[in-house]
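To illustrate the input format used throughout this study, we show a single complete record. The first block contains the structure-token representation of the backbone; no residue identities are included at this stage. The design step must infer an amino acid for every position from geometry alone.
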């Protein structure tokens, strides 16, 4: 599985609309509204890097309201949630 964190600048009045359209995409697992230099962070989880490129250059590019993106490709995942879930018994 390939994972990318996509940092997005979005027109202020369209943040909720763009967030919903992103999270409705099969390739997007989560969307976060954040403070700071970016407005949204979308987590893209797909089979390979080509699908990341297709999703961002294709599907994201078609959405009205996105001003700019910056994509971070994840090499490894370290998550307390995954470890706790894996070792939980009967919960």
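Output of the design step:
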């Amino acid at each position: 599985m390939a994972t990318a964190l996509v940092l997005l600048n979005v027109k202020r009045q369209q943040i909720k609309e763009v967030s919903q359209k992103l999270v409705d995409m099969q390739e997007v697992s989560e969307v976060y509204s954040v403070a700071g230099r970016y407005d949204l962070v979308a987590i893209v989880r797909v089979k390979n890097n080509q699908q990341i490129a297709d999703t961002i250059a294709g599907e994201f590019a078609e959405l009205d309201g996105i001003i700019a993106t910056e994509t971070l490709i994840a090499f490894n995942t370290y998550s307390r949630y995954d470890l706790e879930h894996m070792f939980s018994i009967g919960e």
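Structural context for interpreting the output: The radius of gyration is 14 Å. The chain has three helices and four strands.
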